[in-house]
Each structure stands twice: as C-alpha cells, then as structure tokens.
C-alpha cells in the first residue's frame, strides 16, 4: 500500500507570555499512514494528541518537521510549507476534520451546514440536499432540528452535526479529534458504522480517543502518547 501521509519529526510548542511559561506540545513525532489505513492515538488529556491533528490540518504551523501528503490535486505536498491557497483547497476537497466543537456561521441551519459541505465541492443542489438529509437521518438528528440554528442544540447534537458535515464529503483523509466525547452509546454506534463504511470506501483516518472500547477492532494501529512524545512501542490492535 502506498503512503498517503508521512509525518517526520514533527515538533510544536507554545509560549504563554502572561505566565512566562513555555509548553512543549509534541516533539519529534513520526507516523506514517498508508492509504485506507486507520491509526488511533491514545493518551491523557494534555499529552499533545490534538496538536498533531491541528498541525496536519494547519490550524497550527509546525515548528519543526515535515508532513508529506500525497494529494490528488498537487501530488506530494509538504503541509508544513504549503501555501494558504493549497491548504484551503485541501480542506474543501480532500482533508476532513472532526473536532469536539462546532464552529459555524451564525444563522445557518443544520441542513444548510451539511449541504454546504457538498456544494463547496461542486456537487449539484439536488445531490447535496439528498445526501445531507441521509446523513442527518443516519445520526438521528430530530427532523424538527434540521432547519434550526445549532446554537440551540445540546452538546451531543452539535457533535453529531459536526461529524455529519465532515463525513458527508467522504474525504481522502479524515482527522478525528475525540469524535465520541459527548455522545451516548447509540450515537457512538452510528459514528462507528460510518467510520467502518468510509474505511471500506478507502478513506484514510487518523483519530485520537479516550474511549478505548470504541477503538477496539476499528484501528489498524494504535500509538500511545505521553508528555508530547509517542511511546516507541506500538500497541497491537
């Protein structure tokens, strides 16, 4: 299998000037994802897991290291040095990100949020509407909420909507940042079903989890992280 993403010696730290404190978020992280593979990263809160995902998505600019991504559009591209225009394109067409938090434009309904993800990819209105509704049904979001604004939703409803928006695009690379954090068991099962479906369709995934039971039988490889460093021993899955 060909590599889709190769992370080499990624390092990132933050300086809290008001506290005169320097925090090492992650150091010399090296992970390779092959096409169609699902890798999980575990570890305590604050161990640096999210920093890896945000560096790939370029929410954070890496301090050191390379992130080589095999793009449909651009070929082999280093995400650490890619232009803003390239990153915007990749987010729109190739790389999806599911966080624990939903950030959307105000006065945009749940249905519009999911549909817009497909319209941005050039899909037609009818296809986008149909697929958005299928996704909202899959995650059992009450139909009465479809045309409501998410600021009125519960934490679990917002998370389900966030997952629906990212997964409806069927991205080549999907980054999952605690995708089951505030979900009940039924909703977790829905997420798992969709992850399994995307994996069968060839989506490559990198996810961070606290819910080890959820990961069981889902990930091809698992790495444990502690104090910004990936433990040298890979955990068998």
UniProtKB/TrEMBL annotation:
<dbReference type="InterPro" id="IPR012701">
    <property type="entry name" value="CP_lyase_PhnL"/>
</dbReference>
<dbReference type="GO" id="GO:0016887">
    <property type="term" value="F:ATP hydrolysis activity"/>
</dbReference>
<dbReference type="Pfam" id="PF00005">
    <property type="entry name" value="ABC_tran"/>
</dbReference>
<keyword id="KW-0067">ATP-binding</keyword>
<dbReference type="InterPro" id="IPR050086">
    <property type="entry name" value="MetN_ABC_transporter-like"/>
</dbReference>
<dbReference type="InterPro" id="IPR003439">
    <property type="entry name" value="ABC_transporter-like_ATP-bd"/>
</dbReference>
<comment type="similarity">
    <text>Belongs to the ABC transporter superfamily.</text>
</comment>
<dbReference type="GO" id="GO:0005524">
    <property type="term" value="F:ATP binding"/>
</dbReference>
<keyword id="KW-1003">Cell membrane</keyword>
<dbReference type="GO" id="GO:0005886">
    <property type="term" value="C:plasma membrane"/>
</dbReference>
<protein>
    <submittedName>
        <fullName>Alpha-D-ribose 1-methylphosphonate 5-triphosphate synthase subunit PhnL</fullName>
    </submittedName>
</protein>
<keyword id="KW-0547">Nucleotide-binding</keyword>
<dbReference type="InterPro" id="IPR027417">
    <property type="entry name" value="P-loop_NTPase"/>
</dbReference>
<feature type="domain" description="ABC transporter">
    <location>
        <begin position="5"/>
        <end position="237"/>
    </location>
</feature>
<keyword id="KW-0813">Transport</keyword>
<keyword id="KW-0472">Membrane</keyword>
<dbReference type="InterPro" id="IPR003593">
    <property type="entry name" value="AAA+_ATPase"/>
</dbReference>
